Amino acid sequence: MTESTSINKVAPEPKTSASSVSPAHRVPPHKTENWGGYTIDELRYQRAYTLARIEINNHRLKQRTTNLVDGGPRNSRNVVGKLLSAFSYVDLALLAWKVGSKVWQTSRIFKR
């Protein structure tokens, strides 16, 4: 008899972990019921994590600016080359189309 009752029971649905829920659907912990707040260890961890992230970003920014200043372009050809290398072919095609259409419109105005 116990086998039939255990077979007929419906298993509870598994709870979704926080990582499986999209960020848009996550509820911040301070807006849920029975939330007691962050522990001091959680606050320290968040602070350390944020400071480390800021320090890494500052280091990357400093490195990029020193690379630009030290090994930066010396003439206009290098500047144009660096700018064009930052764009993809699609971006260059769209940029050429926009510039070309403006030049075409301007030349039509002066021909009148």
Topology:
Blueprint: H1 2-8, H2 40-70, H3 76-85, H4 89-111
Give the N-to-C terminal Cα separation: 98 Å
What low-confidence regions span 5 or more consecutive residues with pLDDT below 50? Answer: 1-8
Range of strand content: under 5%
For the secondary structure, the number of strands is 0
Number of helices: 4
Tell me, what's the shape?
Answer: elongated
Average pLDDT confidence is 75
Alpha carbon gyration radius: 30 Å
The largest sheet, given as strand count, sense and whether it forms a barrel, is:
none
Helix content: 55-70%
Helix/strand-derived category reads: mainly alpha
Following the backbone from N to C, one meets helices and strands in this order, namely HHHH
How would you describe what is shown here?
With 112 residues, the protein is mostly helical. Among the domains are: 38-72; 76-112. It contains four helices and no strands. The chain has helices at 2-8, 40-70, 76-85, 89-111. The longest helix has 31 residues, at 40-70. It is elongated and about 75 Å long. It starts with a helix and ends with a helix.
Short account of what is shown:
The protein has 112 residues and is mostly helical. Helices cover 63% and strands 0% of the residues. It contains four helices and no strands.
Give short descriptive properties of this protein.
112 residues, 0% strand
